[in-house]
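Task: sequence design from structure.
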Protein backbone atom coordinates (compact mmCIF):
# COMPACT_ATOMS: atom_id res chain seq x y z
CA UNK A 1 0.00 0.00 0.00
CA UNK A 2 1.34 3.41 -0.91
CA UNK A 3 1.13 6.53 1.25
CA UNK A 4 -1.23 8.05 -1.34
CA UNK A 5 -3.59 5.08 -0.99
CA UNK A 6 -3.38 5.23 2.81
CA UNK A 7 -4.27 8.94 2.71
CA UNK A 8 -7.37 8.07 0.69
CA UNK A 9 -8.77 5.75 3.39
CA UNK A 10 -11.95 7.21 4.88
CA UNK A 11 -13.27 6.36 8.35
CA UNK A 12 -17.02 6.56 8.89
CA UNK A 13 -19.43 5.60 11.66
CA UNK A 14 -20.98 2.21 10.90
CA UNK A 15 -24.41 2.62 9.30
CA UNK A 16 -26.96 0.17 7.84
CA UNK A 17 -25.87 0.98 4.29
CA UNK A 18 -22.47 -0.58 5.15
CA UNK A 19 -23.89 -3.89 6.41
CA UNK A 20 -23.51 -5.90 3.17
CA UNK A 21 -19.86 -4.86 2.82
CA UNK A 22 -19.12 -5.56 6.50
CA UNK A 23 -20.70 -9.02 6.33
CA UNK A 24 -18.79 -9.89 3.17
CA UNK A 25 -15.42 -8.76 4.56
CA UNK A 26 -16.04 -10.30 7.99
CA UNK A 27 -16.94 -13.69 6.54
CA UNK A 28 -14.03 -13.56 4.09
CA UNK A 29 -11.47 -12.90 6.84
CA UNK A 30 -12.99 -14.56 9.93
CA UNK A 31 -14.83 -17.52 8.40
CA UNK A 32 -18.27 -18.25 6.97
CA UNK A 33 -21.22 -17.24 9.14
CA UNK A 34 -19.03 -15.05 11.32
CA UNK A 35 -21.49 -12.24 10.57
CA UNK A 36 -25.06 -12.42 9.35
CA UNK A 37 -27.62 -9.64 8.77
CA UNK A 38 -29.55 -10.18 12.01
CA UNK A 39 -26.43 -10.51 14.17
CA UNK A 40 -24.80 -7.45 12.62
CA UNK A 41 -27.97 -5.39 13.20
CA UNK A 42 -27.93 -6.42 16.88
CA UNK A 43 -24.24 -5.48 17.13
CA UNK A 44 -24.91 -2.13 15.50
CA UNK A 45 -27.71 -1.40 17.98
CA UNK A 46 -25.31 -2.11 20.87
CA UNK A 47 -22.82 0.43 19.50
CA UNK A 48 -24.90 3.40 20.61
CA UNK A 49 -25.03 5.42 23.84
CA UNK A 50 -26.08 9.08 24.20
CA UNK A 51 -26.48 9.34 20.40
CA UNK A 52 -22.82 8.38 19.89
CA UNK A 53 -21.89 5.38 17.73
CA UNK A 54 -18.64 3.60 18.72
CA UNK A 55 -18.50 1.30 15.65
CA UNK A 56 -16.75 2.30 12.44
CA UNK A 57 -15.94 1.27 8.90
CA UNK A 58 -13.06 2.24 6.64
CA UNK A 59 -13.17 2.54 2.86
CA UNK A 60 -10.57 3.11 0.18
CA UNK A 61 -12.57 4.45 -2.71
CA UNK A 62 -15.70 2.30 -2.96
CA UNK A 63 -14.05 -0.74 -1.35
CA UNK A 64 -14.43 -1.59 2.32
CA UNK A 65 -10.99 -2.19 3.83
CA UNK A 66 -11.88 -2.56 7.51
CA UNK A 67 -14.40 -2.28 10.30
CA UNK A 68 -14.49 -2.15 14.08
CA UNK A 69 -17.58 -3.18 16.07
CA UNK A 70 -17.66 -1.78 19.62
CA UNK A 71 -20.47 -2.18 22.14
CA UNK A 72 -21.11 0.85 24.33
CA UNK A 73 -20.38 0.33 28.03
CA UNK A 74 -24.13 0.45 28.72
CA UNK A 75 -25.10 -2.05 26.00
CA UNK A 76 -23.49 -5.36 26.97
CA UNK A 77 -23.13 -7.68 29.95
CA UNK A 78 -20.33 -9.93 31.16
CA UNK A 79 -20.59 -13.62 30.39
CA UNK A 80 -18.59 -16.69 31.42
CA UNK A 81 -15.68 -15.52 29.26
CA UNK A 82 -15.23 -12.36 31.36
CA UNK A 83 -13.28 -11.97 34.60
CA UNK A 84 -14.41 -8.58 35.98
CA UNK A 85 -12.85 -9.38 39.36
CA UNK A 86 -9.48 -9.09 37.60
CA UNK A 87 -10.21 -5.79 35.86
CA UNK A 88 -8.71 -2.56 37.25
CA UNK A 89 -11.86 -0.66 36.14
CA UNK A 90 -15.49 -0.95 37.27
CA UNK A 91 -17.34 -3.31 34.87
CA UNK A 92 -20.10 -0.75 34.21
CA UNK A 93 -17.43 1.57 32.75
CA UNK A 94 -16.06 -0.97 30.25
CA UNK A 95 -17.11 -1.05 26.60
CA UNK A 96 -16.69 -4.23 24.56
CA UNK A 97 -14.55 -4.44 21.45
CA UNK A 98 -16.57 -7.08 19.63
CA UNK A 99 -14.50 -7.39 16.47
CA UNK A 100 -11.94 -5.71 14.29
CA UNK A 101 -11.32 -6.81 10.72
CA UNK A 102 -9.01 -5.42 8.06
CA UNK A 103 -8.80 -6.64 4.47
CA UNK A 104 -5.76 -8.93 4.09
CA UNK A 105 -4.40 -6.69 1.31
CA UNK A 106 -4.45 -3.70 3.69
CA UNK A 107 -3.18 -5.33 6.89
CA UNK A 108 -0.10 -3.76 8.41
CA UNK A 109 -0.91 -0.27 7.12
CA UNK A 110 -2.29 1.07 10.42
CA UNK A 111 -5.98 0.80 9.50
CA UNK A 112 -6.81 -1.47 12.45
CA UNK A 113 -5.02 0.83 14.90
CA UNK A 114 -6.78 3.89 13.47
CA UNK A 115 -10.16 2.18 13.73
CA UNK A 116 -9.36 1.28 17.35
CA UNK A 117 -8.25 4.83 18.21
CA UNK A 118 -11.40 6.32 16.71
CA UNK A 119 -13.56 3.75 18.51
CA UNK A 120 -11.81 4.51 21.82
CA UNK A 121 -12.48 8.21 21.29
CA UNK A 122 -16.19 7.52 20.75
CA UNK A 123 -16.37 5.11 23.71
CA UNK A 124 -14.75 7.71 25.97
CA UNK A 125 -17.32 10.27 24.81
CA UNK A 126 -20.00 7.70 25.70
CA UNK A 127 -18.57 7.47 29.24
CA UNK A 128 -16.38 4.36 29.11
CA UNK A 129 -13.04 4.20 30.92
CA UNK A 130 -11.73 0.99 29.31
CA UNK A 131 -12.54 -1.57 26.66
CA UNK A 132 -12.53 -5.36 26.82
CA UNK A 133 -11.78 -7.68 23.91
CA UNK A 134 -11.52 -11.40 23.36
CA UNK A 135 -8.59 -11.74 21.02
CA UNK A 136 -8.32 -14.69 18.64
CA UNK A 137 -5.01 -16.35 19.51
CA UNK A 138 -5.04 -18.44 16.31
CA UNK A 139 -4.89 -15.50 13.95
CA UNK A 140 -2.09 -15.85 11.38
CA UNK A 141 1.19 -15.09 13.14
CA UNK A 142 -0.84 -14.28 16.26
CA UNK A 143 -1.29 -10.85 14.67
CA UNK A 144 -4.49 -10.04 16.58
CA UNK A 145 -2.75 -10.41 19.95
CA UNK A 146 0.28 -8.44 18.75
CA UNK A 147 -1.92 -5.65 17.36
CA UNK A 148 -4.03 -5.31 20.51
CA UNK A 149 -0.96 -5.47 22.80
CA UNK A 150 0.82 -2.84 20.69
CA UNK A 151 -2.17 -0.56 21.20
CA UNK A 152 -2.07 -0.92 24.99
CA UNK A 153 -4.19 -4.03 25.60
CA UNK A 154 -3.28 -6.02 28.70
CA UNK A 155 -3.80 -9.78 28.98
CA UNK A 156 -6.31 -10.64 31.71
CA UNK A 157 -6.91 -14.36 31.14
CA UNK A 158 -6.80 -17.03 28.40
CA UNK A 159 -9.99 -18.97 27.61
CA UNK A 160 -9.77 -22.35 25.80
CA UNK A 161 -12.50 -23.14 23.26
CA UNK A 162 -13.80 -19.55 23.26
CA UNK A 163 -15.71 -19.95 19.96
CA UNK A 164 -16.67 -23.65 20.26
CA UNK A 165 -20.35 -22.94 21.01
CA UNK A 166 -20.70 -20.71 17.93
CA UNK A 167 -19.00 -23.41 15.87
CA UNK A 168 -21.38 -26.16 17.05
CA UNK A 169 -24.68 -24.28 17.40
CA UNK A 170 -24.53 -21.14 15.26
CA UNK A 171 -22.89 -22.35 12.05
CA UNK A 172 -19.58 -20.52 12.56
CA UNK A 173 -16.92 -22.05 10.30
CA UNK A 174 -13.53 -21.32 11.86
CA UNK A 175 -10.91 -20.65 9.17
CA UNK A 176 -8.19 -22.60 11.03
CA UNK A 177 -9.93 -25.52 12.78
CA UNK A 178 -10.80 -28.47 10.52
CA UNK A 179 -14.09 -29.22 12.28
CA UNK A 180 -15.34 -27.76 15.56
CA UNK A 181 -13.53 -24.57 16.60
CA UNK A 182 -11.04 -25.17 19.40
CA UNK A 183 -9.34 -21.78 19.28
CA UNK A 184 -8.21 -20.06 22.44
CA UNK A 185 -9.31 -16.52 23.20
CA UNK A 186 -7.35 -13.98 25.20
CA UNK A 187 -9.45 -11.75 27.45
CA UNK A 188 -7.68 -8.38 27.18
CA UNK A 189 -8.41 -4.97 28.64
CA UNK A 190 -7.41 -1.60 27.21
CA UNK A 191 -7.51 1.26 29.75
CA UNK A 192 -8.27 4.66 28.28
CA UNK A 193 -6.45 6.90 30.77
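Answer:
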Amino acid sequence: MTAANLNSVKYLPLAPEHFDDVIRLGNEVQGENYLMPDTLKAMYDKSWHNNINASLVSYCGNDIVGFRITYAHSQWQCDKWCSPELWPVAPEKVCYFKCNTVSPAMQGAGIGSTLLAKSVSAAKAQGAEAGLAHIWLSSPGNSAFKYFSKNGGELIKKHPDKWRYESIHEGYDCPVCPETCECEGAEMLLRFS
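The longest strand covers residues 63-71.
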